[in-house]
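Protocol step 4 of 5: obtain the predicted structure for the target chain.
Materials: sequence only (see below). No template structures provided, no constraints applied. The aim of this step is simply to have a reference model before the mutagenesis design in step 5. Sequence pasted as it appears in the construct record:
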Amino acid sequence: MRQENNSENSILKRIFARAADSAENLAARAVRLGIGDDAALFRPRRGHETILTCDWFLEGTHFRSDQHPADAVGWKCLVRALSDVAAMGGVPRCFLLSLALPESHTGRWLDAFLGGLRRASRKFNCTLAGGDTTRCREILTNVTIVGEIREARAVLRSGARAGDVIYVTGRLGEAELGLRILRSSPGQMRPGNAMLKKHLYPEPRLAVGQWLAEKRLATSMMDLSDGLSSDLSRLCAAGRVGADVESGKLPVVQHSSTSRGAGVHPLHLALHGGDDYELLFTVRPSKVNMLPKAFRGVPLTAIGRITEQRGVVLLKQAGRERQLHPGGWDPF
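Step 4 output (structure tokens):
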């Protein structure tokens, strides 16, 4: 007979107790009926459109339970989906969690996972509205987020036009370097290592995305989850345009000796490394002077221009150039 503390009802009670948010915040008030019924009821704000997105986070594909702390798995499973809301300039309101896990992980591991999930939920003001649980040999999570944005303010991938300046937020390749460091020294966590933090506890650029959308500065935007080479190709395909990227302008990782020690060059990390959850966006030339060098401490870097000719070209020093083919993360 299954022990009561490992029953589905017991696990659901623990999830709801640990993930509960204060009803005082805006996100919680948006959920008119939340956990405890067959489905949740969401109350959209007048004059806003609803953003819907979901994201898988799978053991063996996206993380390893013997290398990644449980609280980091909880944090990151929500942040990955929040980054999609940031890429449209939206505000997250609530989320649904689907969680499958083995019975061996329904105790201490689950508590740590829920701790990381709760920290992310509170920091980014996105309340748990419901979900589902089941048992499985691997840990599988799926997060569905409901967000909002003012009508006609959403920034799409397809809006880039020839001449637009291409920007990225933050620094590229740090998360991939963090993953390589983690793999090279399993079990040796270094909390102070910035690269590990970017891999384990990324932060969605919600404030930057909302500012760009509200000020109507970005003509197109998406998040960098699979690597610049792959994601920029998708943005260009959506707008039926091309791009020139200047390699010398890319905000690469600073610790080049560390990155080379991990077996990869900083430029390769910046072009093809995934999991950064930075924003890739384009701006009309006439509005470039409205962008600061950083927004709330997050660097904004111009790295190239949109072109009429299809394809992405990497411009190197001395006038050399080559086609930049997608080389980032691909689950298949």
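Step 4 remarks: The chain has two domains: 4-150, 157-323. The longest strand covers residues 48-58.
Proceed to step 5.
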